[in-house]
Each structure stands twice: as C-alpha cells, then as structure tokens.
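Tutorial handout. Part one gives the primary structure; part two gives the three-dimensional structure as tokens.
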Amino acid sequence: MSKLEEHLAEKGILLTDGATGTTLFGMGLQSGDAPELWNVDEPDKIRAMHKGFLDAGADIILTNTFGGNKHRLKLSNDAHRVRELNMAGFERAREAAAEFDRDVLIGGSVGPTGELFQPLGALTYEDAVEAFSEQMDALVEAGVDVLWVETMSAVEEMKAASEAAKDKGVPLVITASFDTAGRTMMGLPPKGLNDLRSEFSCTPVAIGSNCGV
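Part two.
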C-alpha cells in the first residue's frame, strides 16, 4: 500500500492544495511566463505559496511543475532544463513541508504537453510518452509521494501519461478538466474517464476532475 493510500485509509478524506496559478498571478507572475522558472528564480515565493496551502490545512501539496515537460518549457527556451526545474519544484515543496509538524504528502504535478496529437497536430503518442517519462523521472528521483497528472482533456494524452508512469514505482492520480458542456475540450465525459481506467497502462489509485468551469 502506498503512502497516499495509507493516509486515505487513516483519514477518509485528504485535502489537496490550489489554486496554484491563481496564487502565483497574485504574487506577480505575468501571463505567458513559465511558473516553473520561479522554482529557481523566486524560491521564497514558491515556498510561501506552499506554506499558505499548508496553513489552510492541505494534506497534499503539488509541486510547481504543471508545465514542466519539454513541450511546454520550449516556449520559454527552457526545454533543456526539465530535470533541473522539476527537481527544484520538489525541493521548494519539501522545504515548506519541513516547517510543519505533521506528515505532508508531496505530489509531482504533471500537466498536458500543450500540443495536439496527430492527425490534428504534430505530436505522436511515442513522443508524448517520452516527454512525460522525462519529467516523471526527475520528480520520482527527487522524492515525490505520488505522480499527479492533472487538467487533462485528450484520451491519448492520459494514456501516454499512464504509460510513462508504469514502471516508476510511485502511485498515479489522473484528473481531467470538464467544461460547462460536461465534457473535456476533446469531448470526453466524466463516465468516459471512469471507463478508461481499465485501459491505462498504469492503473491510477484515483481519478477525478479539476480546473473545470
């Protein structure tokens, strides 16, 4: 049983953090900037963000690595810094958690690539798996308790993330973002996410919804 499952069995409900983007914009992050750069450039602000969530009672805090894959980081010419920025993201969360006298779980946040899959775009399934695996390797090496794949909309992307997580030795959570029509941007309804669970290469310990309208 993973640390996440042990905590859930013990407490019944676990409170996670958020909203990260909203909080960072309030701290001065500009639209279009890569939040992951703040793990290195503005460490005090990232620690303060995590501490705010912990003060509010969060049992799980997510690393500031939502866009920490090479496809998202290439927008700021930082695709070569995947390992550095993801490991720094974990360190900022760990440092904040160390100030609290309770057991805090740290989830490695993994967001979408921001690319469209073939034939709608240029991204191949194999390249998505590679990108997610590169990011997850850094997060697992750093020490995350769970891989938290979030705000997904495409079936192929969720499957690629689950395949990347398959042999990492860390539990997986997958959440999708559903809009006002009750579906993800790529047309998946909530029931469809539940049906997909058995098709994932690595069965998530939990599935759910986040960042919807």
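Part three, for discussion. The chain has a mean pLDDT of 96. The longest helix spans residues 125-142.
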